[in-house]
Design brief:
The protein is α+β, with helices and mostly antiparallel strands. It folds into two domains: 3-193 and 311-415, Zn peptidases (Aminopeptidase); 198-308 and 431-446, Alpha-Beta Plaits, CATH 3.30.70. The chain contains 13 helices and 22 strands. The chain has helices spanning 3-13, 16-27, 37-49, 105-118, 145-153, 162-168, 221-235, 276-296, 316-329, 348-352, 379-398, 403-410, 419-427, and strands at residues 55-56, 63-68, 75-81, 85-86, 99-100, 131-137, 177-179, 182-185, 189-195, 197-206, 246-247, 250-253, 264-273, 300-309, 312-313, 335-342, 357-358, 361-366, 375-376, 431-434, 436-438, 444-446. The strands form five sheets. Strands 1-2-6-3-7-17 form a six-stranded mixed β-sheet, with helices on both faces. Strands 8, 9, 15, 16, 18 and 19 form a six-stranded mixed β-sheet that branches. Strands 10, 11, 12, 13, 14 and 20 form a six-stranded antiparallel β-sheet that branches. Strand 1 (55-56) and strand 2 form a beta hairpin. Helix 7 packs across helix 8 (276-296). The longest helix has 21 residues, at 276-296. The protein is elongated and about 80 Å long. The mean pLDDT is 96.
Length: 448
């Protein structure tokens, strides 16, 4: 093993106890997106104790710090996510909020701290060039959409996803590439080809309330919503398998009194697919199903579409770095790169549209991701090995005069040439409108 990698791995090991303590601390204090103030304060203290100067987001949680090796070269961003999910049935959730880190983001924060600590060790930067930007980022999970919309309405945020918001604020300006190591299951290190993007959908079905004992003059918004889900399910078979389309609605408001016909029912969902174009096309089919279902019941429906996340395309050359470093840490059979496609979504996809990016996973978790049985059963792998993987990838990229990083940049294939072009494209995906209009003669016009 090259001395540079050995030095970095040893530097991570030197902070093993602190890394594992950070994992437990953040696990015990879970906070969903844009609410991670305790986590922000805790991590801020750790980084400042290491001597880092932080640029804080201010009105939302999160910060970044940049390390300059003193030698010219590319700038590499490394993310660590801070937010939790809300799963009230999880045995270790916050009893008041239902929040729990059932996706392992707390391990990312602990591992990124381990990278930060390792990079402060004497001599570790001597073999590197360029800059390293460490970012503690909020709000990856697309949950609590009404809360995020309220933040948007107040002008606090412009975008629902934390990385997208950070891009908008300029925190990724000047970066050449970006990576983030997610918590994974089992005892493996893996990096796939990419994953889906999504449009976030909200539909309010509007009817007319009457007493449930005499429903003939009412318009049941709940029946309109049920009919819409049936219609959307019937459309599913038209989704091409190759596009990895997913649609998964929930009803978040379904009536207020059992003896009154509901006059307002709210449904939320996401439409996911493997490209932004395919996502938009499938979304139109869902819109048409919703509008037709509402009209069939004589109801109205107000649709709200918001850009969720762009599909993630992991740079194949960048992924190879994961394999090279991963095989320094684990047996070869436990390291797999450039494999398959995932149907989940992440705002790392948005980053990947403007610069080479990767989103590998390092094991340590067990149970069901986003489920009540999710646990970190091997914190050593989820945090310490993850920190070594990230530090090693930085050495692979920025060592030897950054030959690997420069090749990745030279051969990159991205969707947009700039963040300005990216934002112009995604802003067009967001709209709100009434999808059914009735004429005086009762004729229904569908707008989808």
């Amino acid at each position: 093993m090259d001395e540079l990698f050995s030095t970095l791995f040893s530097a991570v090991d030197a902070h093993r106890a602190e890394i594992l303590a950070a994992e437990r601390q953040i696990w015990k204090n879970p906070e969903p997106g844009y609410r991670e103030w305790k986590t922000h304060k805790y991590l801020k203290g750790l980084y400042e104790a290491l001597g880092y100067h932080l640029t804080e987001a201010g009105n939302i949680p999160g910060f970044y710090t940049e390390i300059d090796t003193g030698r010219p070269g590319p700038t590499v961003v490394v993310f660590g996510e801070m937010d939790s999910l809300i799963i009230p049935t999880h045995p270790e959730c916050d009893p008041e909020t239902g929040a729990v880190h059932a996706c392992g983001h707390h391990c990312q924060s602990a591992a990124l701290y381990g990278v930060a600590a390792a990079l402060k060790a004497p001599g570790v930067l001597d073999g590197l060039c360029g800059k390293i930007r460490l970012i503690a980022v909020p709000a990856e999970e697309l949950i609590e959409l009404d809360f995020r919309q309220s933040l948007k309405d107040q002008g606090v945020i412009r975008y629902f996803g934390g990385k997208v918001e950070f891009m908008y604020r300029g925190y990724l300006d000047g970066a050449d590439m970006a990576m983030m190591v997610h918590t994974g299951g089992g005892q493996n290190i893996g990096a796939n080809a990419g994953s889906n993007g999504c449009i976030v959908k909200r539909a309010e079905f509007i009817g007319r309330a009457v007493h449930a004992a005499g429903p003939s003059k009412g318009l049941n918004a709940l029946y309109a919503a049920n009919t819409a889900m049936t219609a959307a399910n019937a459309v599913r078979e038209t989704f091409p398998d190759s596009q990895h389309v997913r649609f998964h609605p929930i009803i978040t408001a379904g009536g207020t009194a059992v003896n009154s016909i509901p006059d307002s029912v709210v449904m939320e969902s996401q439409v996911r697919a493997n490209t932004m174009e395919n996502t938009a096309e499938m979304n139109v089919r869902i819109n048409r199903a919703f509008a037709g279902a509402a009209a069939a019941m004589g109801c109205k429906v107000r649709l709200s579409d918001r850009h969720g996340y762009a599909p993630r395309f992991n740079d194949p050359n960048f992924n190879l770095a994961v394999g090279r470093v991963g095989r320094m840490l684990l047996p070869e059979e436990q390291v797999r790169v450039n494999r398959g496609w995932e149907t989940g979504c992440s705002d790392m996809g948005d980053v990947s549209t403007v610069m080479p990016a990767i989103h590998p996973a390092c094991g340590g978790a067990s149970g069901t991701f986003h489920g009540k049985d999710f646990m970190i059963t091997d914190p050593e792998m989820a945090c310490v090995t993850s920190a070594k993987l990230q530090a090693g990838i930085l050495a692979d990229l920025l060592g030897a005069d950054a030959a690997v990083a420069k090749q990745i940049v030279a051969e990159k294939k991205v969707v947009y040439s700039s963040t300005a072009e990216y934002f112009a494209a995604v802003d067009k995906l967001s709209r709100e409108w009434d999808a059914v209009e009735y004429g005086e003669d009762g004729t229904a016009v569908l707008k989808y």
